Amino acid sequence: MTDLRLAAVFAGRPSVLGHRRDQPILSAIVKDPVTAPELTLTQLNLDGDEQADLSVHGGVDKAVYVYPSAHYEAWEADGFDVEVGHFGENLTVSGADETTVRIGDVWAWGDALVQVSQPRSPCFKLAMRTGRKDVVPGMIDSGRCGWYLRVLRPGTVPTGGALTVVETDPDAPTVGEVHLVAFANFAQLERPQAEAGVRLAERVLATPALAPSYGGGIRSAVDRWRLRHANVG
Q1: What stretch of H or E contains 108?
Q2: Are 13 and 49 in contact (CB under 8 A)?
């Protein structure tokens, strides 16, 4: 794993993103670039950043959302009219992506220490933000999901420069591998492919740094598959 270079830092508070069934939808996916040279990072947020629905967003395992800058070119090539920051990330970075970043990786960012906890799962608010319903299946299929960080040590963080590698486990699953098993339908795979997927899922679930709430769905899928094939030779 390499250091991450900061391309941009964003923060935002909840506002009305649009309406659904005539009800206003609050979201903080629309964020503003941070122009100050540094800001405070707590265990839950960057200074000036909040989440609207704490039942599915935010919390200690999703304190900071990171997105690779190179993905924006790929989205544009796919016909999406998006710019850096449109996916609601706090940090737009270069230097690594989901294929190289691993669950549990730790970086030093200014005075703070941050750790990769899980991939991002897209929801309807991303579709509202981009004006494209197909952005959600597009993110799932492409694996261009980005990842969340938990804060191991709060501190003052710069809005430019690098996040420096402190710790990585080469045997830990990548963010891309976790994303893959999270959205895999084992029942629709041929038996050898399903068994390989279940083995990967078990490896993912054995990763201590994986956010517990994210692992729940993977565990349920694995248990259902094993139960279905328990008596099959």
Answers
A1: strand 106-109
A2: yes
- Give the list of residues 6+ apart from residue 188 with CB closer than 8 angstroms, or none: none
Burial class of residue 78 in the structure, from the number of CB atoms within 10 Å of its CB (0-12 exposed, 13-18 middle, 19+ buried): middle
Amino acid at 114: V
150 near 61, Cβ under 8 Å?
yes
CA distances to 21, 58, 86, 184 from 67, rounded to whole Å, are 30, 16, 10, 22
- The string of pLDDT tens digits covering residues 123-174 is 999 999 999 999 999 999 999 999 999 999 999 999 999 999 999 999 999 9
**Cα(92)–Cα(6) distance, rounded to whole angstroms?**
6
Q: How many Å apart are CA 186 and CA 197, to the nearest integer? A: 7
Position 212, amino acid: P
Q: What is the CA radius of gyration of the chain?
A: 18
Please provide residue 22's backbone torsions phi and psi, each rounded to the nearest 5 degrees: 65, 10
